[in-house]
Amino acid sequence: MTNKQSILVVDDEISMREFLGVFLSKKGYKVSDAKNGSQALTMIQKNNYDLILTDIRLGDITGLEVLREAKKKNPDIVVIMISAYSTTEIAVEAMNEGAYDFVPKPFDNNELTQTIQRALELKTLDQEKEQVSTELQDNLYFNRIIGKSPGMQAIYKIIKQISSTKTNVLISGESGTGKELIARAIHENSDRKDKPFVVVNCGGIPDTLMESEFFGHVKGSFTGATGDKKGLFEASHQGTIFLDEIGELSTFLQVKLLRTVQDTFVKPVGGTKEIKVDTRIISATNKKLEQEVIDGNFREDLFFRLNVIPIKVPPLRDRKGDVEILSKHFAEKYAKKMGKDFVKLSSYAIDFLTKYSFPGNVRELENLIERSVALSSTNIILPESLTISMHKKRRWVEGIKGKRFDLADVEQGVDLDEILLTIEQGYLKKAMELAAGNKSKAADYLNLNLRSLRYRLDKIDIFD
Fold it and tell me: According to the model, what pLDDT value does residue 397 have?
């Protein structure tokens, strides 16, 4: 780091000031420190700092007052609040006053470093909004597809290569990964973009009606056919037809579809005349269609006709780098939709989302952010504001310093002693905080006798 960015550490504990001074200096920052709020305000008036890291409780004036005065002098200064006595109300107040984030003590050193790095990159809330827009513009290559992960970049490249062709495409991936968005992107980047894009849910139409929906029918061909009807293939002439959940088609309809794919003709139900159609076919499935072929559930010849260009969409758990940009996009989208001010996600909320596996993929993330924006009484989304259902939250076992253990990790092998010790540390820490250091009261919170509590505190050696 050639031009060192400057950080002012404000804390009334000398050990914390010394630790942060050494730690942040090793990270390449120029660090100054103040032992109380009054000294911090004097230093802020005399110097221009890139970032202030301040405790809430400072002995004389509060960290919130330091925040307000710092923002008065320089609205662009970045302020991160830290405290061992954090509450949601204080965190929201601090961030509404202009703090970039609120970090509870004891903090994870790596997470604090990442928070500082992100804060210095974004600088102010206005710059963050501009940054979000820039990131989305840079990565919004195809309609509403958002992602900068290598897997998504590879898909963007394929879309660019194939959009101008008529070649059939098969998009595979788990539910909620955005297969229809990719199909629309291919269509809207092609010379067919001004023609119809017809979506067919192959699993949502009964078999008895599917043939008529696909190919149309003539008057009197069956009971209820009171007139001629154009099928979806004919309706998508010169455009694109998107066959979603293609793996749900019955064997009978697979035979009918195969002929249309091969000969580019459709014959309406009850009709004798074949109709020429010029339609690009994009299919999608959340099944492993190759296995369906092996199992005899899907025709091999139709599979090869549809799978000329395969696109495999990675699940969200394999593209963790996209979670933040997607979350910010959805927060901004639903804030506008609900008439709310710009909604900000705290870096700890982003961290929580990044560590979650999202079995429902992007669709689940979008629904989660929409609920959180709707239910939040402030314009700040904190980890506790995220409305993940309780059965999903229980997959995480959380200990001290925010370290989490995923119950699914048992399959790969875990160190149970380490996990249990970490959880014990977390409960002891919380009880001591609630009791304001009173060991008798902390013992009551944990249903322990005083001797047992002292033994446990001595064992982990994190409290005096």
Answer: 42
pLDDT tens, position by position, 221-258: 887 777 888 889 999 999 999 999 999 999 989 999 99
Are residues 307 and 326 part of one domain? no
Give mean pLDDT, residues 190-214.
89
Domain boundary among 279, 312, 345: 312
Token look-up 């961290």 returns: 351
Would you say 123 and 309 are in contact if contact means Cβ atoms under 8 Å apart? no
- In whole angstroms, what is the distance from residue 92 CA to residue 344 CA? 11
Average pLDDT across the chain, whole number: 83
Distance CA 283, CA 279 (A): 12
Quote the CA–CA distance of 295 and 145 in Å, as a whole number: 34
In whole angstroms, what is the distance from residue 100 CA to residue 111 CA? 14
The answer on 213 and 197 residing in a single domain is yes
Nearest Cα residue to 12 out of 78, 65, 76, 56 = 56
Structural tokens at position 171:
């998009």
> Per-residue DSSP letters for 393-445?
HTTEEE-GGG-EEEGGGGGG---HHHHHHHHHHHHHHHHHHHTTT-HHHHHHH
402 touches 354 (CB < 8 A):
no
Cis, peptide link before residue 315, omega less than 30° from 0:
no
Same domain? 358 vs 238: no
Report the 10 Å Cβ neighbour count for 160.
Answer: 14
To the nearest 10°, report the CA torsion of 150, 151, 157, 163: -160
CA 142 from centre of chain: 19
**How do residues 122-161 score in pLDDT, each as one tens digit?**
664 455 555 555 555 555 445 678 888 889 989 998 999 9
- The predicted model scores a pTM of 0.66
Cβ atoms of 434 and 427 within 8 Å: the answer is no
Q: Would you call the peptide bond into 106 cis, given omega within 30 degrees of 0 as the criterion?
A: yes
- Distance between CA atoms of residues 244 and 193, nearest Å: 19
